[in-house]
């Protein structure tokens, strides 16, 4: 069923985008209780008791046609006419489609790191339930009553940025690495011919890195591992068995790449946690996507490095991972929208 102008009047007329290297994340709001006709990530919807709107989320591979299709499906564009006042855009790919979408509304660009800051500011201000969690073979939500600050944020997209947040206004980028989701996708494509990120994540559920990686108990050969556990199953050498096995399952290769990516990132994150003496480390970014295998790999790796250093630190995750930047864009947009209507 096609949308009509009266339908569009139930939308807050701002579109908030976080355009990364491969994915576009879209955040928008409707009046409370309004029934959308398009498909959104319903499990992420935010309903704030003190506001008269609710926040919705959509993601799709970078494509101008797909973006316009989604805007039409939501009801922002009807019969070629736009009901969008402003686009609030962030991300490394925020320059994409600039000329084309400027025909549908004014474009306001938000610095990528400022967008992350504002995204956490929004989440912290509303104290939305079941937002932050730990993962060890299952989700355990944190029931926070105080502020989340200070913390370190490890934002994993195509690349990785590591930021230190002292409070809601003061933050700095302290590190990063090029070995992120883009590397995982690129090498996985090279090994398997598959270029669909979601399909690759499904393959990791079927694979075992024990067939491709050398593990601690295999390397130490009876000697004690660094954690003094002779049955240590953590990765010692990524892809260390490829020269021994000629018939490797593709799912095993993808699982090994997932371990290789997460172990490298987790070790860098732990070292910065120790260096800056901040125990709370959040992992976010669309590479994670609340995917069980990815969460478990990061938890195993971070906890392993913590144990090696006789620490007891654990990684934390965010329900809205991958959408913190677009939420920050939304925070900017909704503040301006409220001011313009008063």
UniProtKB/TrEMBL annotation:
One of its GO terms (cellular component) is nucleus. The keyword Nucleotide-binding applies. One of its GO terms (biological process) is coenzyme A biosynthetic process. It holds the Pfam family Fumble. The keyword Nucleotide-binding applies. GO terms for molecular function: ATP binding; pantothenate kinase activity. Transmembrane segments: none annotated. Keywords: ATP-binding, Coenzyme A biosynthesis, Nucleotide-binding. This is Pantothenate kinase. The lineage of its organism: Eukaryota, Sar, Alveolata, Ciliophora, Intramacronucleata.
């Amino acid at each position: 069923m096609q949308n009509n102008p009266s339908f569009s009047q139930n939308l807050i007329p701002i579109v908030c985008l976080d355009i990364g290297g491969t994915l576009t994340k879209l955040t928008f709001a409707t009046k409370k209780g309004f029934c959308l006709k398009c498909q959104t990530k319903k499990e992420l919807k935010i309903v704030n008791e003190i506001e008269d709107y609710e926040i919705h989320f959509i993601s799709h591979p970078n494509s101008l046609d797909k973006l316009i299709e989604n805007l039409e499906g939501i009801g922002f564009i009807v019969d070629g006419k736009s009901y969008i006042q402003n686009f609030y855009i962030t991300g490394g790919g925020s320059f994409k489609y600039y000329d084309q979408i400027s025909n549908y509304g004014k474009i306001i660009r938000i610095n990528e790191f400022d967008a992350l800051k504002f995204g956490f500011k929004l989440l912290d201000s509303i104290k939305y339930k079941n937002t932050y969690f730990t993962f060890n073979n299952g989700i355990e939500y944190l029931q926070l009553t105080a502020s989340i600050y200070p913390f370190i944020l490890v934002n994993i997209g195509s690349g990785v940025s590591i930021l230190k947040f002292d409070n809601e206004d003061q933050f700095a980028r302290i590190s990063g690495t090029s070995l992120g989701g883009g590397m995982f996708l690129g090498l996985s494509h090279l090994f398997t011919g598959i270029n669909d990120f979601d399909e690759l994540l499904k393959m990791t559920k079927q694979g075992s890195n024990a067939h491709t990686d050398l593990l601690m108990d295999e390397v130490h050969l009876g000697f004690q591992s660094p954690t003094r556990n002779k049955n240590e199953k953590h990765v010692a050498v990524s892809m260390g068995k490829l020269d021994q096995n000629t018939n490797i399952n593709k799912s095993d290769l993808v699982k090994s790449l997932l371990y290789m990516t997460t172990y490298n990132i987790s070790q860098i994150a732990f070292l910065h946690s120790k260096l800056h003496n901040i125990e709370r480390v959040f992992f976010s970014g669309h590479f994670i996507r609340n995917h069980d295998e990815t969460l478990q790999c990061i938890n195993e790796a971070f906890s392993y490095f913590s144990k090696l250093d006789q620490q007891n630190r654990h990684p934390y995750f965010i329900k809205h991972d991958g959408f913190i930047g677009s939420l920050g864009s939304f925070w900017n947009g909704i503040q301006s929208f409220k001011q313009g209507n008063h």
